[in-house]
Design a protein that fits this description.
Strand content: 25-35%
Strand order of the largest sheet: 12-13-20-30-32
Structural class: mainly beta
Oligomer: single chain
Distance between the termini: 37 Å
Low-confidence stretches: 389-403
Shape: elongated
Radius of gyration: 29 Å
Amino acid sequence: MNNVSDIKDKVLVIQNYKGEYPNQMVVVLNWNPDKASYTLSELQTEIQGLGSDAKGYIMSNSVYANSEKQVVDAVALTEENIGKSAAEALANPVTIHVERVAAKVVYTAKNNGKFDTGKEINGVKVYAQIEAFELYNDYEQSRLLKRINPNWATEDANFGFTNWNDMDWFRSYWAQSLDTAFPNNSFAWATDNTPLDKWNYLGENTRSGEANRTKVIVKATLVKESGSPIEVVNWYGKDYVGEGELKIVVANTLKYTYFYKDGDKFIGLTPEDLACTTRQPGDENAYEVFFQLSEVGAAKSWHKYENSNYNAIAVNALNGELANVQPALVYKEGMTYYWLDIKHLGLEDSTTEYGVVRNHVYKVNITDIKGYGTPVYDKNEAFEEPEKPEDIVTYVSAKINILSWRVVANDYEI
């Protein structure tokens, strides 16, 4: 059946203990347990990693609600299932469904990942070429057995979809996220890249609130139609090309305020006196570029023209004033990023609109990108919070099938 991706016939030999037979069974695959035995309660609270391509991804009993709204996370055994020989056991097998603890996100894009941003500078169209993807707020651990609330559909009017539980197919399509886990909550443009048509495995994350959602970071380069990078710069709402042009514009604005003394002459600040730098990661608007004196500028004797006088100003004081000048956006070598939240199956604005659930494949297909996105000045700098680009609109539709992977296929316009 389409619900099952693989079937294995195995006979489990049970060593009888004081005439007692087990009355239920839990199956865990590709797992290296820390101890010899576990109670069901311990399995329900056990936190595990996801496994790996090399060792296999961990799977465990599928969890769902029965018709009495009871959680089923173990398979009941009857006397008929327990034979006195391998032949007897094979004649009355117990059927067990398992699901992957991990979820999977797959990245695809139209046009080989190249999109018209709708922007142009001096008549030159600017395109965004997708370079790679990275996950943010992705969890690398999950509970060994999925935790559900069997009353979700009736308790929460804003739950988002009523068919979250599919008893006939031995599965459920939502889960309670970990209260505490260890998400990947930083990213850098130059590291941890996943190319188009590839994928990542990740743990469940159904925590509420936009800040807690698992996001896809789309790393791109702003390019000309030919594909060559274009270093877009924006200052006071106007676009320029290149950091050099930015320094010229800023210096021309400030040269009537700040002067260095050369002999008996006062000469206005020049582009070579300026350097661009970024704020510390974690600061608000950390992606913005602000201004300081360059090594050339710091070696000069500075004065500030005010009240018709040239008043001496120390380098540190001048740097302090330059730091308060309107910051710029510099897409160094065209580097930029966009992001989107992974959508699940719920209705818009419902509890379950966004989320990552085990044994689901989330197909993230980029169909359009508009705008420049969020600039990257230092590709090796780690960002702790993704900044939301302007004009981002996200659309998602979903469809599904160890149990087999359930596929949630989404188109996104950024």
